[in-house]
Amino acid sequence: MGYQESLRTISYLQMNNNNNGMTLHGVGRSTLTTRPNAISVSLQLSLQEAKETNRVTCGVYQAARRLEESSDHVMLCVLAADTLDNLELCIHFTLLEAYCWENDIQVIKVDSATKLGKLLLGDSLPANDNDFAAGRSNNAQSLDCALVEFSKENNSPADEEVLTFSKASEGVLPRPVIDLPE
């Protein structure tokens, strides 16, 4: 079942280049379709499998370091959309997204850094959580960014569904945000 069947309608803006410069025009609505619960569950399963097999890198700075070392092994970049009010994170996310797109790494946005943290960190504080240790974050369970590496064997069905969704939503603006379960 493909993802170009109808999940929801998403408004977007398109930039047009005319002789007077760049202008933004509302161009209506675009549809991207999937079962909202299905992609949420698939993403949750994919992240849990990656965590169990040590294929996850957590944190913005650690993600940047991992991408610098070996971006060829990275399958997916997961970013929390609720942290975009933080200018520093917004800049980091923009750079991470650009690097990922340039290197054919899929990017998915999720609704909550807290939910992402609970999913990947559970009740434990990761050893590499520099933001929490430095006092820039009040919540040890909040996780703004995670990278998922390819499996050593074949990708799981959950991994494939997440990748298919991500590829199908590449042309949709604004990018869809996946609601993670509580």
From TrEMBL:
The membrane spanning regions, by residue number, are none
Which is one Gene Ontology cellular component term of this protein?
A: cytoplasm
Which SUPFAM superfamilies did the record assign? L30e-like (SSF55315)
The residue ranges of the Ribosomal protein eL8/eL30/eS12/Gadd45 domain are 46-120
Q: Which GO terms describe its biological process?
A: regulation of cell cycle
One Pfam family, please name it: Ribosomal_L7Ae
The record's family statement is: Belongs to the GADD45 family.
This protein is called: Growth arrest and DNA damage-inducible protein GADD45 alpha-like
Organism from which the protein derives: Lingula anatina
